[in-house]
Each structure stands twice: as structure tokens, then as C-alpha cells.
Amino acid sequence: IQLCSLSVLYKSEPRAVLLKAAYDMSSFSFFQRPSVREFMAFTSQPIVERSAKGSRASVKQQEYLCHVYVRNGSLAGVVIVDSEYPSRVAFTLLEKVLEEFSEQVDRIDWPLGSPATIQYTALDGYLSRYQNPRDADPMSKVQAELDETKIILHNTMESLLERGEKLDDLVSKSEVLGTQSEAFYKTARKQHSCCAVM
């Protein structure tokens, strides 16, 4: 799972203006980084330009997803993530960043702004914090814990079923159990076989 880029843009006509961006280039070779970074900045602009105000969208670009959120006030955010990154967490991040950006940066500076002139420094922190969506987002953490619990429960049921099969062998080999007890066990086993875990 990787969060590669987080950008804030202003949706103006005819072109979107890049206001601030942060990138994580750790998965790319040293020589690829400048080109990849440039391509990510380039990709964010037409996505914002083609998105309606008040909309959210996800655009697939090779093995990456570009999630865009354009607020009604023309402030927009784009995250570029790999396909495994949860889209709900990406949109939560965009909402949080755009809300904070709109509170900290004067709206007058948006149309004429540039990454060098805009005084907003939180993007790198967000990019780092949201690299692991499970740690950054409480809902993802809960979902992951539920998934782990399901796996543990499934494994436990499988081991119980294996033990049940071994119990069958023990019952049939037993010399201590009377015929009536053995018949009772087999009847109970048949009645509960309808409830087997898949």
C-alpha cells in the first residue's frame, strides 16, 4: 500500500493552478524520481479541470488511482495511490486537508498562488501519517481488526473440525464406550453436520 502524492489545487478557467503538493518517491529509483514527480503534478491538473465542483471521483492511471475532490469553492485535492490503498481513507484525507487549507490560507491567494508563495506546510506530515491507512484512520484499524478476528475464528473452527474428525476415530476405536453411547454420539454428529462452517 502506498500513498505517492497529495496535492492542493485551485480549479480556475481554463487551467487548474497547483497551490501545494507533497510526494513520496521512495518506491522509485533515484533517476526516475524527477520524471515521476513531474508526471504526478501534470496528471493532477487535468483531473481537476475535468471534474465538476462539489464532486469526488477516482481515475485509474496504470497501476495507480487518482482520487480527486473538488469543493464548491473551487478548492480541489488530489491523492495518487496504488490500487490497494482504501479509497474511503483517501477521500477522508482529502476532506481533512482541504478543510484545513481553506482555514489557514486566505482565499484571495488561491487564484494567483504557487507552491512557492503559499504558506501551508502540513502536506508532508499528512503524506507521512497516511502512508499506513490502518494507523491513520480509526475505521480502517477497526476493519482490519475485524478481518483478523474472522481469520482467527475461521482457523479455530477448522482446528475444531479437525479435532472432531479425530474424535470420530477415537469413538469408533473405543472399547470403553457402550453401543448406546456410540450410537448417541453418531446421531448427535449427524444432526450437527448441517451446521458445518464453510
- CATH architecture name of the largest domain: 2-Layer Sandwich
CATH C-level class of the largest domain is Alpha Beta
Number of domains: 2
| Total beta-strand segments | 5
Shape call: elongated
Radius of gyration: 27 Å
Strand content: 15-25%
Oligomeric nature of the chains: single chain
Are there runs of 5+ residues with pLDDT below 50, and where?
none
Fraction of residues in H or I helices: 40-55%
Compute the number of helices.
Answer: 6
What is the CATH H-level superfamily of the largest domain? Longin domain
Annotated CATH topology of the largest domain: Beta-Lactamase
Helix-strand string: EEHEEEHHHHH
Largest sheet: 5 strands, antiparallel
Strand order within the widest sheet?
2-1-5-4-3
Distance between the termini: 30 Å
What structural class is derived from the secondary structure elements? alpha+beta
Subunit structure: Identified in 2 different SNARE complexes; the first one composed of GOSR1, GOSR2 and STX5 and the second one composed of BET1L, GOSR1 and STX5.
Subcellular location: Cytoplasm, Cytosol; Cytoplasmic vesicle membrane; Golgi apparatus membrane
Keywords: Coiled coil, Cytoplasm, Cytoplasmic vesicle, ER-Golgi transport, Golgi apparatus, Lipoprotein, Membrane, Methylation, Palmitate, Prenylation, Protein transport, Transferase, Transport
Membrane topology: Lipid-anchor
